[in-house]
Specification:
It is a single chain. About 30% of the residues are buried. The longest helix has 15 residues, at about 15-30. Helix content is about 20%, strand content about 25%. Helix 2 (about 15-30) packs antiparallel against helix 3 and helix 2 packs antiparallel against helix 5. It is built from eight helices and 15 strands. A hairpin with a 2-residue loop joins strand 12 (about 300-305) and strand 13. Residues about 75-110 and about 110-125 have low confidence and may be disordered.
Length: about 375
Amino acid sequence: MARDFYSILGVPKSASADDIKKAFRKAAQKHHPDVSKAPDAAAKFKELNDAYQVLSDTEQRARYDRFGEAGVGGGAGGPGAGGRGGFPGGAGGGFAGGFPGGGDFGSVEDLFEGFFGGAARGARRTGPPPGDDLRFDMKVSFAESIRGGTREVNLDMRVACETCSGSGAAKGSGTKSCDGCGGRGEVRTVRQTLLGQMAVSAPCAKCAGEGKIIEKQCTACRGEGRFNGSKRLRVDIPPGVDDGTQIRLSGQGEAGRRGGPAGSLYVVVTVEEHPQLVRDGIDLLTEIPLSISQAALGARVLIPTAEGEEEMEIKPGTQPGAEIRLKGRGAPNVRRPSQRGDLRIVIAVEVPKKLSKEQREALERFAKASGEERN
């Protein structure tokens, strides 16, 4: 079940960054395993940490508000398993990967370093930042959702500069170690905290935390290594996609700054409704109307299937509400396309509201033959 990070920290969705920080600090002081003796202290603290790592990061918080925990790597070890901005598959930031010291949690001092330094020791990554993940909404027909297919799409995004191959450096130039941080991407200072003096880290302002600076900038992209452009992509739609299915195209998002890795593209599928078929997991449901005579005597009728209409035999004496199941005629399992659900056909017997003279006489003869008395 997806977790509500706002409820975990005890703040409303409208909470400011400062409110979130204060709420986490207060709760962390109470539940940190070094302080609390409760048996669930470690689990509670980890949950608080997971929530704080998402809500304290502007990009991850925006994606969480939009996609829920699934958009920030939930279910795969918490936010630390998410990529930049929280989608699964990249390297996490903040406290991801645990606190210093080799255990799941560091000391209370490590906790406060996270507040004042911006990240735990050992968790900061230097080098060019990755590009943003992107979302693209794609509408597919019901038939496409069953059989799969391929689409070509054009997307506006930041793409790598061809002149400098995305490095941001002019031809013949390159990068050098930042003299502001010695190539570490961060600077350490001593600050006074509630627990005394502590050495804390912050991103280097000179190199923006990358550890390197460009000697001479590329004039085409002004040293960014990317610019606004467009990209044409092929999207493979797997058989069995359903409403809300997300297809991740790793490395097909926006180009990273100065040679940083590209983000991912998330294609979110919307399936058009079928006039007669409804999805129920990997099963398909439909309702077939029969007349009284068809249900009693049997008949051959047309039924809708994922592949089109087919003729099916209705056995004599079929009852209203009966369900006929055609094995393996449903939707494919999107993770295992060779596995298909069933087509479930529910019988609806229609009773005529008006009868002709001949129909009424025929039914009266039927009632008499059945031993039914009519007043």
